[in-house]
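User: two proteins, same treatment. go.

Assistant:
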Amino acid sequence: MPLFSSAEIAFGIRGMYAIMKIREINYGWQTTVKLREQKRS
């Protein structure tokens, strides 16, 4: 009997991918804000 079903594995991979995407978006947004602040000063 496998430890994880194929559905659980697929969901885990999708979840990890979603977390990576969210981090990527957050990092990009932070970088944009920092650049805007630098342009102001």
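Protein 2:
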Amino acid sequence: MPSHTSHYLQPLDVAVFKGLKTYFYQACRLWIRRNPGRRLTRIQFGTLLNDARGKAATCANVISAFRATGVYPLNPGAIPEFAFGGNTEPTNESCQNDHNESAGATVAEVSDPVPSTSTQSSSNKPTPTRVLNELLPNKISEVRKRAKQISILFTSKDHIEKRKIKEKEKTATENKCKKRRIVKQKEKSDKTKTEKTVRKRKAIRRVSDSSCEEIP
């Protein structure tokens, strides 16, 4: 028997499980509306499933399931012929109507029926993914952890020695920077002095040359 045809012969698949799924989805939505912001735990899951099972697994529903599958009363023609073949759809409208009547027997005989319309699109039907997305709580933004703060005893020997070493290193770097500045300033001053002396010599030469030219 093909794997996709076994549910035709199972009374629970025909009548009980479909109603159980519908009632469970309704119970979950109702619980979420009444408890906004709360997370659905295993305790509530069992309670909601028990309520849905009480509505779906009724005596009338089970009797209709056995009748739809032809188990009791015995009806060899309850299952259509196309169900035992390949994955093909029936061409006879009467076979399709018989299958629809057997699959929808639970809705007519359940004590608390679920309203449904033929014009409802498949996109509005509840699916496990949609129900899980509704049950999941909102994401909580992660809080940044503070850096670990270590207590230090300022009068301890280790801390005093570390402070002395850091101060020595700091003074050494400052002295190096001062020496570099002094060297640069000295080089700059020497350069300016040499430039001034060169300018003076050029000026003296110009004066001497001009005086020599004026003498007859």
